[in-house]
Amino acid sequence: MNLRGRNKITPEFNMSSMTDIVFLLLIFFMIASTLVTTNAIDILLPTASGKTENKKSTSISIQKDLVFYIDQKEVEVQNLESELLKLLQNETAPTLVLRAEKSVPVDYVVKVMDIANRNKYKIILAVNPN
Question: Lowest-confidence range among 40-44, 57-61, 66-70, 111-115?
């Protein structure tokens, strides 16, 4: 007489569902990794124990129709350097923030940077963060 149980458990494991999950995860991470872009170069910066100073900076804006502004005051291109000299004559270390629209030709941006370089002004180019 055969008294063995009818429900015999087999020690086999089906790997097909596991491989499907692994391939789906692989495809997900491959697509997700192409969407990630870095905005900065990965470098180690030096440390300092000094404090940062809040200095007043002068803003120079250039609109797409080539209208120049110094702190919301419209200025002609020819008078830009003389206006900056009058405005910044009493500053010890003047800082300029250059805000130019994307469609402004690079010649005008370089012209403002050249004025800052001639007069030993520190210049910062303002950009939109992503």
Answer: 40-44
Residue 51 parent element (H or E): none
Q: What is the largest CA-CA distance in the chain?
A: 113
pTM, two decimals, is 0.55
3-7, 20-24, 108-112: least confidently modelled range: 3-7
CA distance 64 to 34: 33
- Angle (CA) 68-74-75 rounded to 5° is 65
Please tell us whether the domain made up of 58-125 is placed in CATH 3.10.20.30.
Answer: no
pLDDT of residue 92 exceeding 70: yes
Residues 34 and 2: their CA atoms lie apart, in Å, by 62
Whose CA is closest to 65, among 78, 74, 53, 55?
Answer: 74
